[in-house]
Amino acid sequence: MIPTNPDLECRDLIKDFDTFRAVDHIRFDVPKGSFFSILGPSGCGKTTLLRMIAGFQTPSSGDLLIKGRSMIGVPPNKRPVSMVFQHLALFPTMNIGDNVGFGLRQRGVSRSEIKTRVSKVLERVGLPNVAERRVDQLSGGQKQRVAIARCMVLEPDVLLLDEPLGALDLKLREHMKVELKALQAAFDTTFVYITHDQSEALVMSDNIAVMNNGRFEQIGTPHDVYNAPETAFVAGFVGDANKITARVSSAKDGVLTLSADGESDIRVAAQNSGFHVGQLLQVYLRPEAIELLPNGAEADKASNVSHGIVDAVLFNGANSMVTVKAEGGVLWKVALPQTGGFSSLQKGDAIRTRWHPAQARCYQAAEG
Amino acid sequence: MSSDTSRLGLYLLLAPIFLWLTVLIILPHVGLFIVSISEKVGPRDYDTGFANYAAFFTEPLYWRTFARTTIMSVLATVLTLILGFPIAYYIAKLTKGRAKTTLFLMCMIPFWVSELVRTFGWMILLRETGVFSNLLQYLGLVTGPVEMLYNDAAIMVGLVYTSILFMVVPLVTTLDSLDDSLIEAGYDLGGTNTSIMREIVIPHAMPGIVSGCIVVFMLSLGNYLTPILLGGKDSLWFTGMIYTQFITRFNWELGSAFGFLLLALSSLVVFLGLKVSGQSLSNTMGRS
Ligand SMILES: Nc1ncnc2c1ncn2[C@@H]1O[C@H](COP(=O)(O)OP(=O)(O)O)[C@@H](O)[C@H]1O
Ligand SMILES: [Mg+2]
Which CATH number among 3.40.50.300, 3.90.1170.50, 3.30.160.250, 3.40.50.150 corresponds to the domain A8-237? Predict the structure, then answer.
């Protein structure tokens, strides 16, 4: 059997700007037909990495393979990848049809064939009959789809997208997320998508790489990255989290007891973690992992239960939260279910919270 | 009341422009036109008619000089464009920050001295006993001194040199406004250097190209000093001919007619240029 190569493969890719290392030992591969996201804060090197894949920047070292073929030294116009630019980069001096047909014209495809292929691809992105229009006559979402059509008409092996939804307003962005995922499935092409918006990455991707300071912190499915972050950075960057620093005071049966100044002790599950008594840990806890206890409800022994005062109610529809001030003064963000009996909750109310030790994630904290 | 005062304010603001237009542009041209349609029939005795214009068309020297001036000016414009475009592209797209400012300034430096001095500079280089001639002799490429002045090539060099800044400035401005990602998108979609130049860069720079060409053409057509100094007495430039009619021959009537023909010609060429390139005057002039 012939081994099937992944569509895109990076091996120890490094990019140095003078003394500054923007991309540091990046290695990953993207299987055929999958949606791969690179998620990271702005300035972490995402664009630099993508531009190396597209060929606009040369790696300082490392190798880059597309369908098993090394791309080092191959100019951008000879690579089987296409890129959707951050601001789309549609050519304003051409109409939509000429924009989409640009790549085919460069390949010397005949005029009549270009015409049929352009109208076919425009139909696939849901924009029939716009070929004669000017670029500025389209809405933001339509331009987005034209930019994708302009790349897809060339049938690239890999489509690169550099924060293409960044310039859209919130409503349209939510809509385009779903649409992009559907387009990717329809074209069955490998997408490499970079973004600083975690919800874009979580919604659309088959796999996510979380990037920080030029390095990949974790590669995994959206589920893994959200529920089992491997590093403190991932736990803090992906999704919302309460962050507490506490010292291990005892360890027994895979449960650590931690104590922080002035707080009641908390228990966290830490199977095979290798943490020992006296170590300083950082604990991350999702707001939705914390439950508000109704008055009179019995607390089970295994969970962490604490008393607190409601500090603020942040109403935001399904994403509503309350901040609860615990006895020691720490503020906890707690998800506020809109279905329960907490709709009358107000600032100043006394409340009990509960969370299970297995819900927390612990990482070693820097001493000091 | 208040609208009256604001209207008065507007008129006062526009007054200098109106004054400038009427006193310096419209009145002289009306006067010139009246002079141009007067025929001298005797001492201090004039008739109205188009005899001066007729003289232009019947005397081959006049209209041939006219045609020669036009063709040379068009040629100078084309050469300036061919020379100026790479310079502008380099400044706008391939340099950044300080290097860009420095290069831009270097383009301006020759314009700190007067046109007369600049043209004399070329004369020092090109004349029989000049720098180039001596250099060629020193290198043994020629045996005797060579005269490079007083021919059409020398005029062309002078014209291009005098007007290249006026081509480079609007080109740099329009090319600067071309987003680099458009060029990158062109390469990404498989474009080559030539196809990107033809399909992306030049269409974008078209307003700058046209406005640069209009200015350079006007400057060349109306240039007096360069053709006379570098082309010599027989340079046969139309502005020189107008000068002769006014100053040497005291024939203000014919001179005025020539002036009007030149005005008509430059308007016509600009109109044709805009039509051919599909640009509008407001589009080209508004952007640079
Ligand atoms: N051409 C360059 N020269 C020097 N530094 C650069 C260059 N391009 C990017 N950088 C630096 O590399 C880092 C990563 O940039 P970038 O890849 O654009 O980040 P992101 O897209 O994740 O926001 C930034 O700190 C940026 O300043
Ligand atoms: Mg970026």
Answer: 3.40.50.300
